[in-house]
Amino acid sequence: MAPQELKRDLENRHVQLIAIGGTIGTGLFLGSGKAIQLAGPSIIFAYLIVGIAVFFVMRALGELLLSKAGYQSFTDIAEDYLGPRAAFVTGWTYWFCWIMTAMADIIAVGVYVQYWFDIPQWVPAVICLIILLGLNLLTVKNFGELEFWFALIKVVTILALIAIGAILLVIGFKTDAGTVTLSNIWTHGGVFPNGISGFLLSFQMVVFAFVGVELVGVSAAETSNPEKSIPSAINKIPLRILFFYVGAIIALLSINAWTELNPAESPFVKTFSLVGIPIAAGIINFVVLTSAASACNSGMFSTSRILYNLSRNEQAPSHFAKLNKNHVPSNALLISTLVLSVGALLSKLIPETAFGIVTTISAICFIWVWGVILVCHLRYKKTKPELQAGSKFKAPLTPFINYVVLALFAAILIIMLFAEETRPALLLTPLWFILLFVLFTVNRRKREKTNIQGFEPMEG
């Protein structure tokens, strides 16, 4: 019989790079083009605002995870502080979040491959899924190694972009689009060229750019030294936001006027093609391709682990809790990958709009998950003051900042309601939550009935 415990094979370097990989992905490399089209240079402030909010969510999650040794993920936290119904809904919603996110990444893989080959988007998407599934079925260390190198590629690329941008600024380099200068940020219609409305409408894609940052919490059960690696990874998030988002966007907008960027293409590929190095655009396209594959890899990892955890808590079919000989929840991984393949189908059926639909649904569901983390932290602070007093990783500015960030998330959802592109997904997503509440109620009544029948007295 296979051991039914996850293996703690993720080292500190894996966790650090998983944290980076979680904050740099398709939302930045591809989605930033759409966000820049909506907000213009004011997108810099949108990334700062959401990034700061996400940091406080992560500090709350970090304190909660380290407050009890038995926590496998934040579904366990939700059950402790909000009850089994909240744990059920949050767990399945987080699974759904990553399904949508990984679908977006699979769609992006198809888009990037078309840079070199004139083939249907769904073909490379399916090939990518098969390769990642094979690697993830082996060991959790494979996932950690993949993410380590994928994230390293992303980090090196963005640092190279910032360094090249700085050099071009100093020498006043001229591209086909004009001179590289910081004034490109404010001379093409100002910092808010589309007004406050354009700035606000960009928040959906900005939120999507940060999804996955909480992956550190999911990996806690397979981390060899969570007390050291989790605080370290979380505390570095502000620096990463400044470098990998704000720094990268400033470099992009200094080299290109924002009006020259195509929302359907990666602004990173476009920028490096302007630098004048013949193979630069191809290299960057390869980088953003590996970034999409990395994010899909993270999606496969997180969806399988959340199904495993739900199953152990009797909130999903029991066979999802079974591990293979490599301590990998293979049944959960296989079913998650099968659902993920719908992304490849969407690439075939609606290639033009598929990315926008799945990123909107993903952003909405992640706002729910982040909100639950903040509410759990408020409950923890109120109901277990002795734990909070002894915490070695206290979240700052609580409870005030929890309410501020929750208000920001509520405002972003209201903004999505007014945007024509995001409104349909926002109105449809509540159906998912209604379905989960109904399923939980039906499942609980069925279990109660079974328990009552099991204790009926025997006749005679």
TrEMBL record:
Main localization of the protein described in the UniProt heading: membrane
Alphabetical GO biological process terms: amino acid transport; transmembrane transport
Record-linked PROSITE patterns: AMINO_ACID_PERMEASE_1
Compartments where found: Cell membrane
Positions of the Amino acid permease/ SLC12A domain: 14-449
Pfam families recorded: AA_permease
Organism classification: Bacteria, Bacillati, Bacillota, Bacilli, Bacillales
Domain of life: Bacteria
Entry keyword set: Amino-acid transport, Cell membrane, Membrane, Transmembrane, Transmembrane helix, Transport
Record InterPro entries: AA-permease/SLC12A_dom, Amino_acid_permease_CS
GO cellular component: plasma membrane
Gene3D superfamilies: Amino acid/polyamine transporter I
Transmembrane domains' residue ranges: 15-32, 38-58, 92-113, 119-138, 150-171, 191-216, 237-259, 271-296, 332-350, 356-380, 400-419, 425-442
Protein name: D-alanine/D-serine/glycine permease
Xref: PANTHER family: D-SERINE_D-ALANINE_GLYCINE TRANSPORTER, GABA PERMEASE
Topological category with respect to the lipid bilayer: Multi-pass membrane protein
